[in-house]
Each structure stands twice: as structure tokens, then as C-alpha cells.
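Anyone up for a design puzzle?
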């Protein structure tokens, strides 16, 4: 059991992860949320993993759809955008309303203005890790969208003074 003396959550903010919007569409259901866990895991075939809280509407849509889009965010993103995609539920609002949106070859929407790239994946494996689900997807489409630096989790916390929402994999109450 960790004690306050031995566990300082700021150590976890040193990981060089980024912030991403993961989205999926399955018929009439669309989900999108911000995650801090997206990673290329193999190159033959190219595969990417995302980690999504099982209580998020987006997680349920990815499971039904069997595919997802992943967009690393850029440093020019503002906190209103973070709030829209990170602190509200796709079950309650259309997160893509009013933002420039395109669709991947697999049918998943993604926003263009604050996306460094778009990666479209078909789910190949899932792993239940308690509060979250890991989806490993084979990359079917990948395109750079911007030359603006990607938003890292460290930049989000130190420069933008962002908070970690309760459903994030890195949340500490």
C-alpha cells in the first residue's frame, strides 16, 4: 500500500504521453473523448492501442463499431475544446457540432482543426483492465494533418494548467 510519502502523482505526469481524441461511429451512435493513452505497438502490421474508460459512451461505441479514429491533439488547442471532448459525454451532446469534421475510410468522424494526424484502425484485440478497456487496432489509414507540435500530457498540465478528469486512466482522487 503506497503512502503519501511514497506516492506523488506528479511523477506520473512525467510520462511522455500525449492527449488524443478517439472517436467511433456505429450507425446512429457516435462517441468521442479525450484520452491520454494512445500508442503504436507494432509495425508489421501497424497496430495502435488506445485505452478508454468502460463508463465512457465512446468505449461502448468502439466495441459495437469494431473500429476507431485516433487524432493526436496539437499544442494550439484551447481549454474550451478540451472541455467539449474531455469533460462532457457523447451520450449527452454532439461533440462534433460546430467543428470542422471529416470521416475516415472506416466511417469514424474526426475533427480537423486541432488534430496533428488521423489514424483509422480496425479493432483486432481487446483487453479488459478493470476500469478501462484496451483496444488494439490495425491501422487502415494514417495521414498527417498539421505541422503544429503535438500536445503532450506534460504541456497540458504545466502550460495549459489542465486537470485530469475522473474517468482518465491517470486520474488520482
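Challenge accepted. My sequence:
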Amino acid at each position: 500500500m503506497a503512502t503519501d510519502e511514497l506516492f506523488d502523482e506528479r511523477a506520473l505526469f512525467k510520462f511522455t504521453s500525449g492527449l488524443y481524441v478517439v472517436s467511433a461511429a456505429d450507425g446512429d451512435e457516435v462517441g468521442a473523448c479525450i484520452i491520454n493513452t494512445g500508442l503504436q505497438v507494432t509495425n508489421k502490421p501497424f497496430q495502435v492501442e488506445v485505452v478508454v474508460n468502460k463508463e465512457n459512451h465512446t468505449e461502448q461505441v468502439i466495441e459495437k463499431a469494431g473500429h476507431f479514429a485516433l487524432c493526436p491533439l496539437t499544442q494550439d488547442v484551447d481549454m474550451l475544446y478540451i472541455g467539449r471532448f474531455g469533460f462532457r459525454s457523447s451520450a449527452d451532446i454532439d461533440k462534433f457540432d460546430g467543428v470542422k469534421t471529416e470521416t475516415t475510410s472506416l466511417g469514424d468522424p474526426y475533427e480537423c482543426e486541432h488534430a496533428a494526424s488521423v489514424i483509422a484502425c480496425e479493432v483486432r484485440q481487446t483487453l479488459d483492465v478493470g476500469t478501462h478497456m484496451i483496444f488494439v487496432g490495425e491501422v487502415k489509414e494514417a495521414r498527417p494533418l498539421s505541422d503544429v507540435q503535438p500536445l503532450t500530457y506534460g504541456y497540458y498540465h504545466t502550460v495549459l494548467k489542465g486537470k485530469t478528469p475522473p474517468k482518465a486512466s491517470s486520474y488520482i482522487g
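A detail worth pointing out: The radius of gyration is 15 Å.
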